[in-house]
Amino acid sequence: MGIFDAMNTSVGGLQAQSYALQNISGNIANSSTTAYKGIGTSFVDLIPDSSVPSKQVAGGVTANAKATITTQGTISGSTVATNMAITGDGFFSIQKATGIVDNSPVFSGVTYYTRRGDFQLNANGNLVNGAGYYLMGVTVDPKTGNPQGNVATVLKFQNNFIPAQATTSIQYAANLPTQPNTVASTTAATGTLLAAGGLNPSDFSANPLPVGTPPAPYTNATVSGAAATGNIRSAYSSTTGTGTVPLQNNSSAVASGTTSLDNTVGTHLASSILTALSGQTLTINGNTITFNGGTTVATVGSNTTIGLGAGTTATVASILSAIQTAGGAGVTASLSASGNIQISSGTGTDVAVNSGTAATALGISSVTRGGNVLSSPAISGSTVLSGSASAGGAEVISSGFAAGDTITVDGQTLTFMASGASTANQINITDNLTTLLGKIDALSGASGSSVSTGGVITLNTGTVSNLSVSSSNSAAFSALGFTSTITKNRDGGGTAGTGGVIGNDISTFTKESISGGAVTAYNAAGTPVNLQLRWAKTDSASLGAGHADTWNMFYQSDPNATGTTVGWVNTGQAFTFAADGSLTSPSGSGITINNVNVSGQSLGSVSFNISSGGLTQYASTSGAVTINTITQNGYAAGQLRSVAVNNNGLVVGTFSNGQNLDLAQVSLSHFNGTNYLKALDGGAYAATEQSGAAIDGASGSISGSSLEGSNTDIADEFTKLIVTQQAYSANTKVITTANSMVQDLLNVLR
């Protein structure tokens, strides 16, 4: 019996290897099939029963299928947005259409499972894979993002329409500059809020600060004129004139002061000179020096008579003394080393020498003082308000005031007097600029008006009233650096906060604030609204103690506002920052802007959300707001245009309004006995008693725009093919051998 058992066993072996070959063939054929799971072969030995172990035989073999469903295939990218792949454990839930009714598929309600994720949208809006199975999942409310139940159904996306959603919140993150670069800050007076890039409520006809904000206390403001110059002359200086005739004695030697004028003595002034002087009169500065035949020198007042007769006591020194007396105070006369007469004018007067015989004989002529040079330096506090510049005198303005001229200060008249000014409303034309500025301050209630070293007059408004200064003498007023009436409002003051910027103030507002960005919001009907934002700094820590960096935010309510119509609305919240740039107020996550209305479109109350650290105040070279985030949650109504699957397994719809909204959650299921699932056509599986029922949820994850490939390894299958072929050949050899043995046995019987 053993030979026939061996033949039967080999036949079983051939069947088992044929079964293995069939699986290898199928695996190779499906090596490119999406998510195909190869089937291996498990060989099981069949041992015939034997009561004695020593008589036990090898027995036969049978082959069973060995599933590889849990073996992952390679994940690759796909250009189809609805393709997806599972990494790890899990199956897509699917159903098979049993028919078509009214162009819509009909389902039996039986759920199958697959890892084949090559789903695409068909004409009915279903996601169908390449094997014809329909994807199941849980729909999601596109507005809330919450799942609509927990039972998976066949998904369908066709003509999906989402209604408009009004904007209810704005997400904002930005850095506000420590020093805003506003238009107004470039020309503002140093040390003011405007110069720090802030907003000055007193510049507005309606205070734009939050409703209920009290008017700011009045503070002093300044206004400056143009640089002005006056006229001044330098002091006189002494000038020395040297005569052209060297005086000599009768021995042709240089004369001296003691040389006699008596030509009868041994040494005397040259006779030619004495002869020329005799009987002549020399006139200096209107005073006379008379030379006669007398013998004495006589002086009456500033006039001198010098005798040239025999026995006279006069000497050359007498002539020099007479010249000094005639010239007046400060005039001196002397002889040079060469005998020439030198006349020094001094600073008090010029020396006018009338020409004539006597002047010619002595070689002298008029001597004019030096100095008295006109210049035009910057005006100063000591500059006189009228008159002409005189040598060594005070500076005067280039065009002076005259008696009777007036300056009007805040409606009060200051009158110029020739002299005798005695009241607060009077000033002498001979007074200086310091006196005038003091008078103006007294009338305006201010103090501290001054003139700089560069000749620029700065007037203070004080806090009593706004400043207005004009003059009846426009030329003199211009000489002070003011070409027209001066008007300057005090800082501070104004009205209580109105919470908005009216049309008349919009130009001022844009100069004293900076852009905060813009976002398109939507009302309940889906109408788009251009929501413009601006930031205005309402206080600055740079102003000193008691001040903090504080901002107000405004939104544009009417881009066409004019007159008293409100164009920008203050949100009513003070945003305050610490020295390190962090936001200290408000302390929460944001504010609520109530009753937002833009160009007649109502948005209702809108939450202005600021994440922690989202709003800061750091230095910025541009002086502008740096916007990091500005988004909102509203949108217009929209029609579905396309769908895609993301990496979270969510089916995301792209709508005509630009919104990308979640439409469904793709369901994953898993099994306790995964490899005991029943394989169906098209990579589908059905649950069996051995696999257990499907369990919702799985540890695997979904990758969008991806596909899982076949888990078949061609090289491994070829190896199995060789082994199977050899095993099959070996079994045939056994049959051949057994047959030969049977033939041998039959031959014995013959």
Short account of what is shown:
With 750 residues, the chain is of the alpha+beta class. The protein is built from eight helices and 54 strands. Strands 5, 6, 7, 10, 11, 12, 46, 47, 48, 49, 50, 51 and 52 form a 13-stranded antiparallel sheet that branches. Strands 36, 37, 38, 39, 40 and 41 form a six-stranded antiparallel sheet that branches.
| Whole-number mean pLDDT | 91
Largest sheet data: 13 strands, antiparallel
Q: Radius of gyration, Cα only, in angstroms?
A: 59 Å
Spans of at least 5 consecutive residues whose pLDDT stays below 50 are none
Strand fraction band?
Answer: 35-45%
Helix content: 10-25%
Strand pairing plus helix content: what structural class? Answer: alpha+beta
Tell me the span between the first and last alpha carbons: 20 Å
Per DSSP E runs of 2 or more residues, the count of β-strands stands at 54
| Helical stretch tally | 8
General shape:
elongated
Describe this structure in words.
This protein has 750 residues and is of the alpha+beta class. Helices cover 15% and strands 35% of the residues. Helix 1 (2-29) runs antiparallel to helix 8 (714-749). The mean pLDDT is 91.
How are the SSEs ordered, and which strands pair?
Layout: H1 2-29, E1 39-46, E2 60-67, E3 75-77, E4 84-87, E5 91-101, E6 104-107, E7 112-114, E8 120-121, E9 127-128, E10 133-139, E11 153-154, E12 161-162, E13 169-177, E14 216-219, E15 222-224, E16 230-233, E17 236-237, E18 240-246, H2 271-277, E19 281-284, E20 287-292, E21 297-300, E22 303-307, H3 316-327, E23 332-335, E24 340-344, H4 357-362, E25 370-371, E26 374-375, E27 396-397, E28 406-409, E29 412-417, E30 426-428, H5 433-444, E31 450-451, E32 457-460, E33 467-471, H6 474-479, E34 486-488, E35 491-493, E36 500-502, H7 506-511, E37 514-522, E38 528-539, E39 549-556, E40 566-577, E41 583-585, E42 590-598, E43 601-609, E44 615-618, E45 626-632, E46 638-645, E47 650-655, E48 660-666, E49 668-670, E50 678-679, E51 684-686, E52 695-696, E53 701-704, E54 706-708, H8 714-749
Helix pairs in contact: 1-8
